[in-house]
Amino acid sequence: MRVLLVGAGGVGTAITRIAARRSFFDHMVVTDYDLSRAEAAVAALGGEETRFTALRIDASDRAAVTALLTEQRCDILVNATDPRFVMPLFEAALAAGADYLDMAMSLSSPHPERPYEQCGVKLGDRQFERAAAWEEAGRLALVGVGVEPGLSDVFARYAADELFDEIEEIGVRDGANLTVEGYDFAPSFSIWTTIEECLNPPVVWERDRGWFTTAPFSEPEVFDFPEGIGPVACVNVEHEEVLLIPRWVESRRVTFKYGLGDEFIETLKTLHSLGLDRTDKVTVPGGEVSPRDVVAACLPDPASLGALMRGKTCAGTRVTGTKDGAPRDVYLYHVVDNQWSMREYGTQAVVWQTAINPVIALELVASGVWSGAGVLGAEALAPRPFLDLLVAYGSPWGLREQ
Amino acid sequence: MRVLLVGAGGVGTAITRIAARRSFFDHMVVTDYDLSRAEAAVAALGGEETRFTALRIDASDRAAVTALLTEQRCDILVNATDPRFVMPLFEAALAAGADYLDMAMSLSSPHPERPYEQCGVKLGDRQFERAAAWEEAGRLALVGVGVEPGLSDVFARYAADELFDEIEEIGVRDGANLTVEGYDFAPSFSIWTTIEECLNPPVVWERDRGWFTTAPFSEPEVFDFPEGIGPVACVNVEHEEVLLIPRWVESRRVTFKYGLGDEFIETLKTLHSLGLDRTDKVTVPGGEVSPRDVVAACLPDPASLGALMRGKTCAGTRVTGTKDGAPRDVYLYHVVDNQWSMREYGTQAVVWQTAINPVIALELVASGVWSGAGVLGAEALAPRPFLDLLVAYGSPWGLREQ
């Protein structure tokens, strides 16, 4: 297998480090808009440079990406860029006759009149509209195969296949107890993206209603995360799992709640009430600028904080329903300790946890265990081999009966 | 009396409207950096234009201001600009042999090593350093004669003269129940200045310690404001009263607490923890900008909100101590209802309440009731004639025995 990796930021770089320890692929072409980032990722691999090449690419240039896939004889494109580049990369792979894998799906836009009740364009809609073309071409587009979406969706399918007869609710729950030494407030993930996720109308799926939206920060709950993380305030957030899981797994309700914690929720609400989440420009002495860019510029770059971070991050899926006539309530989860990921891979926990999953998916595709044609989420494919590889990679998952 | 008014913003314009109904002065020259603002203020006075002239002035150009004072034969300069222009205007008046009046004093700078324990340069220090020159010239600089500082200081002196034998604490307390229709968050006063006031180290005076500072938002208390405003969360804020009152009024302790309310306090803390209160520049797409300017640009202009505001604002001074051997606790206060000030003067309550006090002070100087030489606060002069004029102007004050 020859892989074209597009994007050598935090997640792309972590993908190279995790993949370098596995033998399933022949070559990985590591690309970025900024060639020096791709070169730095490859150089950091030490003796493994022979299976990796660094090249420059503009992810928004569909024709150039198609040409590179062909020229480099790549079997699959792995998209590790930000979601604005999903569509050109997705189309470039199809045009080149390659498979495709991403960790976030094409962007949503809110309903023009009733944003907090009805969906407008949903996450992934633009990709699913093209499913027939992928099926006809006999090529596989694996969408949303990071940790959440991705591993969370594998957990959902595993629960349906092996743990439940009937499922009431599938609720993805993400939480952490990460702190950053020396900072009062330092998000471990891009604040720009976090604002986008958290202030977009959250989406919920119910069997009787289909997909619908709510106001931001709806249905607050305190979820008790495992392995010492403890209780964290969670709220509904727009996320791909809610759009993916109901397509392949039967249940009555699907939600995603993000463990932002009370302080972070209040901070986001304040930014919103002050209009500082806006992306349109305001005029001030010195220029015309987007307030959200200014917020991001005032905070430390999360990619640079790994060494100062302490704590663990947890991704998982809570499933309630019945098994053999009795009620059941389980939380399937995966925890990464930042000190472990920094020591083992030089990568902070949130980024590392995202990156391991596409590498496992690639290995399953390379070995033929995962195969198919069309636009598929991780829950469309066999969960057990995926979960077994997670253990084999040295990062086991857990199951808690509630 | 001929008056040079510098600054035709909210407060300057309100000064012209209040003064226009009084006969104590012969002429007021209304000036602004933006001539159209001065002209608009004068044009709005209707039949009273004969006593008012509009001219352009640059408040930072000391020589030009001195020349204008001489050319226009003005007896007194009234500074209604922002505090950055205190020093050039104060020096210009002295150089021209005119009297001077302002509503905010020369700016502070924090102690370089122990900002939350010790004072650095205090509010008004640069003006008091020049007191001898004013005394020698036989001219009067009345400093901090708005509502707070200003009326609050008159209340303090009145309490010392007529209500107490010994004073324990003089605590200025400012609160409001103003809301702005259609806005979740819309400060009734400049957010730039509010951030400056609230995030600077608050200053406290005690007889045994002199002036010292604390961390922002210290000594929170809930103060019950009169006339239906009710309880509001108040915290220590850096303000001129604490620097002025101990110079002329005996007590054991002087504080200033601002009734920001819990929501506003949390918002300011959030802006600070995100670094959005910073005035140094950050680089973002579109320019190099000061984050605090971006915060201000995202919020509505408070000067434009008068017609949408509802509620009352209260300024006052709480005094505790003893009278005739018995403990006493009084709150001397002044309340303005926004709907009243909009209807009567077309001016929002907070601005109007600031503007009435310098007009009363001018009238007392014109009539010779207030006189002196040097740099004096309102508490250096007789309080009763000031309070009587407040009633005569149609805006009575109140006294609550606690």
TrEMBL record, chains A, B:
<dbReference type="Pfam" id="PF03435">
    <property type="entry name" value="Sacchrp_dh_NADP"/>
</dbReference>
<dbReference type="InterPro" id="IPR032095">
    <property type="entry name" value="Sacchrp_dh-like_C"/>
</dbReference>
<dbReference type="Pfam" id="PF16653">
    <property type="entry name" value="Sacchrp_dh_C"/>
</dbReference>
<dbReference type="InterPro" id="IPR005097">
    <property type="entry name" value="Sacchrp_dh_NADP-bd"/>
</dbReference>
<protein>
    <submittedName>
        <fullName>Saccharopine dehydrogenase NADP-binding domain-containing protein</fullName>
    </submittedName>
</protein>
<feature type="domain" description="Saccharopine dehydrogenase-like C-terminal">
    <location>
        <begin position="146"/>
        <end position="394"/>
    </location>
</feature>
<dbReference type="InterPro" id="IPR036291">
    <property type="entry name" value="NAD(P)-bd_dom_sf"/>
</dbReference>
<feature type="domain" description="Saccharopine dehydrogenase NADP binding">
    <location>
        <begin position="3"/>
        <end position="141"/>
    </location>
</feature>
